Input
Amino acid sequence: MITLAQILRDHQTSLQLRYGGRMRPEHHAAIRSILACHTPDCGEVRYQCAPCQQRQQAYPSCGHRSCPACQHGTNRQWLERQRQKLLPVDYFLVTFTLPVQLRGFAWHHLRWTCHTLFQVARETLNQFARNDQRLGNQLGLVGVLHTHSRRLAFHPHVHIVIPGGGLTGSRWQRRAGKYLFNGRALARVFRAKFLDRMRKQGFALPDAIPQDWIAQCEQVGRGDHALTYLARYLYRGVLREPNIVAYDGEQVTFRYRDSQTQCWQTLTEPADRFLWRVLQHVLPKGLRRVREYGFLHSGARKTLHRLQLLLRVTLPSMATVSQPRKQRACPCCGQPMSLTVWRQPCRWPVIRRRWPA
Output
């Protein structure tokens, strides 16, 4: 299988020469982590089997959230935690997208833009909920930030998964059917709030900002399918390595699913351009890709638990949710192997100087 690290090793120099001026510290950190993943630069782990004295050596993963070679279980753990919060109601998926004219601004002010996307989306949905007498005042929201399109172009947008109902005090008001909010009305309010935030922050508005923005609101069944889709891009980057279908040393071909036809398409381009297409979606350090609001917030567990009791939700036991990690088995006798050596990677100490006043 063609790996991203393999392409990086071959074309790191040309990538730096062509796109070094656009790179931020998080891009350089991602490159270092991906190249070090599962190599001695990430440390060393040794195992030994007591019955047959068989020994094994392995190199740990880097743990970077944009590395496609590690964190295989992190998406699954997040998805299992979200499944613990599922309610027996219809779910809706709302998507708010920035227009093309604001994507250059979003790239240069990525941290502010991502934070504002979440805040404005939450305010817009809560405003619509308060104005709807058939829906409770307090919604439960799970928001996931995406910065990529299917072709991995820079395309910032936020997905919000919403249970079909809301809380008014201690009373649950359920919304049935395929309709939650009007997408065009959501887009108008979202546009006004986002541009107002830009003005208050002192940013100059670009010319020719369109009047009609895009906001989609659709029913997605019981919610598990939408959460599974969103969990796919939380960790391990925006491209799965099996989707890299060809690499001849200079050109890279990867496949993607077209959003209109739902058919697989391929794109071939120079390796350095492909690497930048992938690495441009690395988020700044500390920027959270997932945020929860309302009764789905981690601080509202008691409210969610009362709601699950009210709706007679049968929760799986914690033993079935958090399973212990399997021990490494000996390839000779099949017995569990013991960890004997764990060498952490050497890191240069950070020298902090206090300059004289």
Summary: Residues 4-64+326-343 form one domain.
